[in-house]
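User: My collaborator sent over this chain with a note saying "see what the structure looks like." That's all I know about it. Can you take a look?
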Amino acid sequence: MGFRMGIVGLPNVGKSTLFNALTKTAAAQAANFPFCTIEPNVGEVAVPDARLDRLAGMAGSKQVVPARMTFVDIAGLVKGASKGEGLGNQFLANIREVDAIAHVLRCFEDGDVTHVEGRIDPLADAETIETELMVADLESVERRLANLVRKVKGGDKEALAQEALLKRAQAALEAGRPARTVEVAEDEQKEWRMLQLLTAKPVLYVCNVEESSAATGNALSARVAEQAAAEGAASVVISARIEEEIAQLPADEAAEFLAEMGLEEPGLDRLIRAGYALLGLQTFFTVGPKEARAWTIRIGTAAPQAAGVIHGDFEKGFIRAETIGYADYVALGGEQGAKEAGKMRVEGKGYVVQDGDVMHFLHSG
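Assistant: Without extra context I'll predict from the sequence alone. Here is the result:
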């Protein structure tokens, strides 16, 4: 199950530097001029999870396969982009393809790095981006409503349901609120997602601070955190420059460098975890002598659908799942110890997988 997070922001806020650090490559040209990223760069990163290494060590697994998350570095967005300014509508199609948006906001002063608006104001930057996406959404909604008129008049049930959702989105957007503020019932979720509204996607604010503020943040990032909390959104403080430096170092030197900077872990680890939480994701494990692997599923996924993430046939032929909670697996010395202590459970089709479950699926075919 692949999850994609789009990195967006005004030009020169550190998007490409952050992307380089995320993917440990120099694939995205991080240059001090607008629009150095023209085609979206795509990179897959391993999701850091100390539990996987612990499980692999206990089981003597020959191979360790972490879960992965995809990041897309999207071209710099400017005021008026929805009307064709800068790179025009190119970025809109790229954003439609991601599951969530990471708004990178410049929270550092540096006279050597130009700002497209000639000032440093992360909240105004965030508003510029949000406004452009809302304008694009409103145009899309109005176009769709116009296309539905004939079907609605004819009493088409699907068209009527779609019109109701579009009108709720339209009301929010016209009031200056993003589509994600619209309350959508569970049975409407599928239809709502099919509208592919840009502002319906969950947002994570990434505060890019100077190196000296990487551990504590600064006054600018504090303002962003306050705004995020008011919106019910999340925010993460990161120094893209530090992360890029860490990405080029061997593991032991990276740990030493982090300690010198007063950081317990790379900011990227926090960013990926925040992305997981934002998307409502969790992890289960399969563990054996050949391989220990982490698998990503949405919170609330039932056992057959979790099995389907491994292989479609596992879901179709699902019989049962042998399940051990992570804490029990570790405390009891692995699978055998958990079995002997009666902590291996046999779960059926109705079981909702919990974060950290160690699972073995039995299936037909």
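A starting point for your reply to your collaborator: The chain is about 40% helix and 20% strand.
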